[in-house]
């Protein structure tokens, strides 16, 4: 509640999610594998191949940090996506714009109890928003329910 004027705060944070460390590691695994292969060849044959190995490791580290610093914050009327390590970008998606959602769980995501949720929207800047590598939760149904409430509150009706 907003105590200054006793109106409910519709942007009050409900839940904050982030991609799992396991998901981030799986995303950078090919870069780490390339670094190990280059290092092995550098050790066995040509020492100059240690330079690409270090570059692959640096790319893997940067990508890993980019993934683990993503935050998805679900509020009553908006979903906020925060990306960035040093410079930050905040994308706001009004929930009444969400038309449909799909939950993806590949075999490795299921093994680590993770999921990805794709939100299909009418937003001009974000047609499809994917919340990747988040822990299994009822976020899909929660977004659906909040989107329905936001449509009713804002008197938004779909005409086909």
Mind explaining what this structure looks like?
The chain is an alpha+beta fold. It has one domain: PH-domain like (Roll), CATH 2.30.29. It has helices at residues 21-44, 50-68, 107-111, 139-153, and strands at 13-17, 71-75, 78-83, 89-94, 98-104, 114-121, 128-135. It has a four-stranded antiparallel β-sheet. Strands 5-6-7 form a three-stranded antiparallel β-sheet. β3 (78-83) and β4 form a beta hairpin. The longest helix has 24 residues, at 21-44. The model is unreliable at 1-8 (pLDDT under 50).
The fold-level CATH name is: PH-domain like
Main sheet: strands, sense, barrel: 4 strands, antiparallel
Strand order of the largest sheet: 1-2-3-4
The number of helical runs is 4
> What's the CATH architecture name?
Roll
* Name of the level-1 CATH class: Mainly Beta
Low-confidence regions: 1-8
Domain module count: 1
Number of strands: 7
Percent of residues in helices comes to 25-40%
Order of H and E elements = EHHEEEEHEEH
Report the radius of gyration as a whole number of Å.
20 Å
Secondary-structure-derived class: alpha+beta
Global morphology: elongated
The proportion of residues in beta strands is: 25-35%
The mean pLDDT is 88
Report how far the terminal alpha carbons are from each other: 37 Å
């Amino acid at each position: 509640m907003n105590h200054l004027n006793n109106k409910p705060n519709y942007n009050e944070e409900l839940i904050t999610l982030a991609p799992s460390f396991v998901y981030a590691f799986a995303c950078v695994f090919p870069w780490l594998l390339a670094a190990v292969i280059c290092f092995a060849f550098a050790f066995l044959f040509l020492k100059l191949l240690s330079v690409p190995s270090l570059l692959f490791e640096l790319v893997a580290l940067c990508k890993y940090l980019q993934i683990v610093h993503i935050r998805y914050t679900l509020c009553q009327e908006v979903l906020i996506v925060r990306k960035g390590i040093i410079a930050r970008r905040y994308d706001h998606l009004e929930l009444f714009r969400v038309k449909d959602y799909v939950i993806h769980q590949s075999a490795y995501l299921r093994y680590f109890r993770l999921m990805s949720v794709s939100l299909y929207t009418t937003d001009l800047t974000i047609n499809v928003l994917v919340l990747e590598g988040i822990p299994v939760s009822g976020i899909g149904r929660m977004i659906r329910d909040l989107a329905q409430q936001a449509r009713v509150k804002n008197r938004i009706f779909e005409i086909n």
